[in-house]
């Protein structure tokens, strides 16, 4: 125990923020006027702190074995200083972990399990998410193309960027896989005149989107189905497909089949925009230092991340040609900090909402878990442990004469300027009113 305390004292002194630790017996280590204090009721959590297993310390906080005092931003600065290595870099001799992870991925990602995993996270409480998301409830990386943008405007900019990248045209059939609370579906229909179909596994989101479609008089243009992507049957393929923040739930072992299914849902010559979180490390099955285990247990059961190179490999194997890739990693860090700050500002209302919907035990654990998840994820994107890629791909039609250039074999023009400028809008315009209606 003395050696452990000596190690802890040394590590606390080296941190970039003033941090203190209170031991189970009441002894205090670290700075007197600490910005962050952790009060331990469990000796094993102390060992995790000393060894840099910050994900396990987070789990102890969620379970009430460690009490936290201080801001999430200061806690994350301390957490980064406590790490003993890069959590995105798995040692090469751990190849057997990747084999086991793939086997587990194959077993875990069934239709029933995936539905249960999605509902565990997204059906926690609509009212809870509404407290800290933007008015449109866009639960994915925003696009801060203007540094002065609010989160709400940056989310609109992201929605419009996706629509422009897909070159959406009036009357086209558009599919949104994992449609969330419907922001992209409604934006695409209202601003680009497409016939939009969304699918989700979340019962709460499905009901919410149905209500918004009716309220906005879009029943002829927009529909939402409570359905797994593997069960979607269509008479004719879609012109354009988007998948935003969804393929993280697919699983490494099922990624080939996922892109093959998406390819079959897309017409020849059509465009796919896959927007999702990717791994910062090339080979790691999940983040180290206990962080991957924390996310699996409390936030996204069954979630798995792939490096962008692996995503491109699986896309290509499925017959999809990547034509543009953009990394929005710092944008997601800023998005997550905005969510974290918003949640921190309404902790008691958030607790009351959760109490009313899931009961006291789960409410308190969920609130602690989300506080750590949002701030910890912001730290991860800042540090490059994770990334956010928008990958635009085509399903080649095999016709050398189609498209704007010989061999294009698609509607993609093989220039990028159309994504950022239009005849009547500036690159960062969103065609939005200053005070968007909540949807």
Automatic annotation (TrEMBL):
One Gene Ontology term of the molecular function aspect: methyltransferase activity
Domain of life according to the entry: Bacteria
PANTHER family linked: CYCLOPROPANE-FATTY-ACYL-PHOSPHOLIPID SYNTHASE
A biological process term (GO) from this entry: methylation
Coiled-coil intervals, chain numbering: none
CDD domains: AdoMet_MTases
Family as reported in the entry's similarity comment: Belongs to the CFA/CMAS family.
Keyword entries, A-Z: Lipid metabolism, Methyltransferase, S-adenosyl-L-methionine, Transferase
Entry protein name: SAM-dependent methyltransferase
């Amino acid at each position: 125990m003395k050696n452990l305390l000596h190690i802890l004292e040394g590590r606390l002194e080296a941190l970039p923020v003033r941090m203190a630790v209170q031991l189970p017996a009441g002894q205090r280590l670290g700075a007197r006027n600490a910005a962050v204090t952790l009060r331990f009721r469990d000796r094993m959590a102390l060992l995790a702190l000393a060894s840099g297993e910050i994900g396990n310390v987070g789990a102890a906080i969620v379970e009430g074995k460690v009490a936290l005092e201080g801001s999430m931003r200061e806690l994350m600065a301390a957490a980064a200083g406590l790490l003993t290595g890069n959590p995105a870099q798995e040692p090469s001799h751990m190849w057997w972990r990747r084999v086991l992870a793939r086997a587990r991925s194959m077993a875990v990602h069934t239709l029933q399990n995936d539905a249960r995993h999605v509902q565990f996270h997204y059906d926690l409480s609509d009212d809870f998410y509404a407290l800290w998301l933007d008015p449109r409830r866009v639960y994915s990386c925003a696009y801060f193309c203007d540094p002065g943008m609010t989160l709400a405007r940056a989310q609109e900019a992201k929605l419009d960027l996706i629509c422009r990248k897909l070159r959406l045209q009036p009357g086209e059939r558009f599919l949104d896989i994992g449609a969330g609370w419907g922001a992209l579906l409604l934006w695409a229909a209202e601003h680009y005149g497409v016939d939009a179909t969304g699918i989700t596994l979340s019962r709460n989101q499905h009901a919410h989107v149905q209500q918004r479609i009716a309220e906005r008089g879009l029943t002829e243009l927009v529909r939402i189905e409570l359905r797994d992507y593997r069960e979607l049957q269509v008479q004719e393929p879609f012109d354009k497909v988007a998948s935003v923040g969804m393929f993280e739930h697919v699983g490494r072992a099922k990624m080939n089949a996922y892109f093959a299914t998406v390819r079959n849902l897309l017409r020849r010559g059509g465009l796919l925009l896959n927007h999702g979180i990717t791994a910062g490390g090339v080979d790691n099955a999940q983040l180290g230092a206990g962080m991957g285990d924390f996310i699996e247990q409390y936030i996204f059961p069954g979630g798995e991340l792939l490096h962008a190179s692996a995503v491109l490999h699986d896309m290509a194997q499925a017959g999809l040609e990547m034509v543009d890739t953009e990394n929005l990693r710092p944008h997601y860090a800023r998005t997550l900090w905005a969510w974290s700050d918003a949640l921190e500002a309404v902790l008691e209302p958030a607790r009351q909402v959760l109490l009313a919907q899931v009961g006291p035990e789960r409410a308190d654990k969920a609130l602690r878990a989300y506080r750590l998840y949002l701030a910890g994820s912001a730290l991860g994107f800042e540090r490059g442990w994770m990334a956010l890629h928008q990958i635009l791909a085509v399903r080649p039609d095999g016709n050398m004469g189609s498209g704007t250039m010989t061999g294009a074999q698609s509607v993609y023009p093989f220039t990028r300027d159309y994504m950022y400028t239009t005849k009547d809008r500036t690159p960062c315009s969103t065609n939005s009113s200053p005070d968007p209606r909540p949807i």
